[in-house]
Structures are given as structure tokens and as C-alpha cells.
Amino acid sequence: MKIEYAERVNRLPKYIFAAIEELKLQKKKEGIDMISLGIGDPDLSTPQLILDEIMKQVRDPANQNYPSSMGEPEFREAVKRWYNVRFHLDFDVDMEVTNLIGGKEGVANIARAFVNAGDIVMCPNPGYPVYENGGTKLSDGVPYRVPLLIENDFLPKFEDIDTKILKKAKMLYLNYPNNPTGAIASKVFLKTAAEYAEDYNFFIIYDNPYSEFTFGDYIAPSLLEIDPNHIEINSASKMFCMTGFRCGWAVGNAKIIEGIRKIKSQIDSGCPIFIQKAVIKGLNEYQSEKKPKIVKDNIDIYEKRRDILIQGLNKIGWKTDTPKATFYVWTRIPEDEPNSMDFVKKLINIGVILTPGIGFGEYGENYVRFALTQPTNKIKEALERIEKVLNK
Predict the structure, then answer these.
(1) What would the CATH number be for the domain defined by 48-283?
(2) Helix, strand or coil, per DSSP, at residue 316
């Protein structure tokens, strides 16, 4: 029997992180203590009040049945309330709010709902790989890589995009605060993006899971504050350190929400009811656009880690800027290193794991991403190991 992958699967790139995982396991077998600053997965615990609510809700037989793929009514009401408190926006819960099994599936399923074979989808590069692969390519679309360059503060420069591309594009993925660069976008930039979308008739998927992962007095905006005709994705994953619970939401344009619901009704049965109810508990902690204590306490820890890492890198001669958001630090590799993958392999040899920039696309080459997902003592130890490599 000859078994062959579908062409859309063959179009997917090789998974660059597989080689990193193999090296990591090899070094572990050699007895090297690994310090992982590569994976974007919060290491801090889910807030206790949410955990307590999960335990309470999971025991209720009414919460053990199939959920609705669009989300329970009370969940959608809580998301509506959160957007009203946080961004001063109002939505129709029946038509403009839907549940997601984490933001990732929403990012992919929007493409399945709207992208036809050959349609162009504009994907930021470097960017979250799901935009180009799980979303665009697995929907038989054609990704157009929009460069995010340091000279433009890692924001798309729309005037540099060929007008033929803009006219043909079906949609654009945008993500600020940004993974992997940590860059932020102003409302002025978001207005420009919305104007281009209006002029060239494409819609924007604003992926906003780091909206609450901001430092100092910076408060991240929503694209929908500028133009409600697009769609925004968010989730409990980063906000409440709930990556493993898989609970998110999409809000915005009713036609786009309807498309997501049509796809989801065919392939999933939604996020468990008891998890939705626990997330409601967390969302209801918001009384204003400012972070509640259950969020701020964790952000303060990540901010301290960020400062230790940035100060340490600059002290050993690795010039690195301080991001205002996300738990990532994006920085150029030292000048004498050939490429990001080889540099990451070199650090794995001493037990420090980073993510190579090339893993986020061609414009990520010569960069690496640190994830602030280790306690301060481990970050300091990683800095000591890195210093030895740089000095050598």
C-alpha cells in the first residue's frame, strides 16, 4: 500500500525545533543541567482563585457534558463584560463573541473559513508560525511574508508592500504585543493598518494574547478600538498562566465570527464547561483597564526577570534592548556567529536553550528569542554560562 501525504502537508516546512529537542535530550543524557529559555510557556502557577473555581465547577455534573462549540452563554457574557471594562467596547454575545479552544485553533480556523486555494494571506515575518503554516498553507492559501524589521520597530511597512499583493490579499495577521520580537503597536499604527484594510478590501486578524503582558505604565490597545470591522483573538493562556487549559475567545465582525463557528461546529465540541466557568472567575476580577492583582503579581515577577536578563546581557557585552511587553527578549546574535541555529546549538552544549530566530521565518535570521520562563537564579546561571561562551 502506498500512503502519501496531501500536497498541503508536503508544503509545510521541516520542524526546526525537532533538531533542538534531539540535542537537548542528548545533553541531558550526558548529565548537563539544562536551563530552558526557549519555550513560550509560563512557568508560574494559575492563580489560586481560578484553580479553586475549577475544582468547584468540575464536581458539578451539569458541567461534565458536551459544551457548546461557540461557548456557554455566561462565558460569552463574561468576555463581553471584560472587553467593556478593559477596552470600553461593546459586543453582541450572540453574533460577535465566540469561544475558542485556545487562541491557536482560532488563528488556524479563521483561515479555513475564508481562504480559498490560491488566496493570498499576509503573514508577519518573523512571526508565529501558525499564521503561515497551520492557517494559510493548510487552507491551500499562499502566504505573503510581511517583513518586520528593526529599522521600523518591527512593524509592517505597508507602503513597501506591492499594491498587487494588497489588492489580491484576503486577510492580514497582526500580533501586538508581538511574539517573538516583544514589539508594541500604537493606536496611530493600528489606524494606518485599518485604513489599508479598508482601501484594499482585506480584513485583519488581530492576535492579542499578550494584551495583559505589559510592563510599567504601558497598556496595550485593541485593534477593535480603532475599527470594529475586523476580528481579535485573545485567551486565558498568558493572562492567567493557563496554557494547558486551552480556553480562548474571538470577538468582532459578526460575519467572521459566523465563519469560525461554522468550522468549529464541524470539528470540535468546544472548551470544557468547567474551564469556561473558571475563566469567567478570572475575567470578572477586572474592574478597570488596569490589571487586577491576580495578573499584576505575575507580571511583576516577569518584569523583574526581564530586567535581570537585559542588564546581564548588556553587562557581558551582548547589547540588548528592553521590551515593554511580552515575556520574550528578542536580540541579535553576536556579530561573529554565522547564524541563529548554529549559535543556539553552541549554547545547548553548555545547557542553555534559546529559540533561533530562523524558526520564526527568514527575517528572524541572526536573532534569538529568550523566554523569561525560569526563576531569577536560573536566569543568572544562564548568563554566567553564556558569558563563558562569548568570552571564549
Answers:
(1) 3.40.640.10
(2) coil
**Tally of residues, the chain:** 392
CATH classification number, 7-45+292-391, choose in 3.40.47.10, 1.10.1520.10, 3.90.550.10, 3.90.1150.10: 3.90.1150.10
The position carrying cell 474571538 is: 250
Distance CA 74, CA 93 (A): 9
Contacts of 345 (CB under 8 A, 6+ apart): 20, 23
Annotated domain spans of the chain? 7-45+292-391, 48-283
Distance in angstroms (rounded) separating the CA atoms of residues 318 and 335: 10
What integer is the mean pLDDT of 134-140?
96
Q: Using one digit for the tens of pLDDT, what is the confidence trace for 300-310?
A: 999 999 999 99
**Cell, residue 335:** 556579530
Give pLDDT tens digits for 49-84: 999 999 999 999 999 999 998 999 999 999 999 999
Average of per-residue pLDDT across 188-204: 98
pLDDT at residue 391 greater than cutoff 90: no
Read off the amino acid at residue 316.
I
